[in-house]
Please model this.
Amino acid sequence: MPVTVLIVDVRSERSAALEQALLSAGFEVALRVDEREDLHALVELHQPDAVIIDADLPSRDTLEHLGQLGRRYPKPMIMLASEDAPDLVREAAGAGVSAYVVDHVMPAMVRTMVEVAITSFEAHRALKGELNRTQTTLVQRRSVDRAKALVMESRGLGEDAAYQYLRKTAMNRRLALHELADEMLKATRRTEGGRSGAGSSAGSGRH
Model:
C-alpha cells in the first residue's frame, strides 16, 4: 500500500515540484495545503503517513502549529528549509519534526528522505513507549513494595510471607498484584485521613 504524504505548502512553486517528485517515487500525495488552513482537521480527515512542511524559514507560529499537530496526531514530519539555523533545528525537533532538510531536495533523494523520516519516527515512538512501560512498571513495583511493608507490619510477617500473602489475595480477588496494592494503599490513606480529621475535631473541641 503506497505511503500517503500531506504537503504543507508555503512556497507553491517548489511544493509543486516536490509533489511531482513524490508521485514519481511511488508515494501518494493526499493534499497540498496552506499552513494557515486547519491542519488538525485535514490530518484527521486524510490520515497521511507523513507530513512535509516546505518553508524557506519556518516561523515561530508554524513551529507552534506543528507542535500542536504532533501532540494530537503524531506523524513523521519533514521540514524543508533554506537555512541551517541551529536554534530553528532545535525548535523544529521540539515540535516533533523527524527530519530537518536544508536546501533543494533532488527528486532522487525524495524516497530515501521520507523513508528515513518514517523509520526515525517509528524508532522514537517505540523508545518512548518502552520508556513509558518501564516507568509504569517502576510505579507498580513501588506500590507493591509499600503494600508489602504494610502487611509485614500489620500481620507480623517476613518479607517473603508478606509477598505470598499479597499474591494469594490478589489471585482470590482476580486482581493484578499492583491493583491490590493500590487498593490497600488508598484504604490506608483514607484511614489515616479519618484519624487525622477526628484528632483535629477533638482538639478544636477542647478550646
Q: What stands out?
A: The CA atoms of residues 14 and 154 lie 72 Å apart. The chain is about 65% helix and 15% strand.
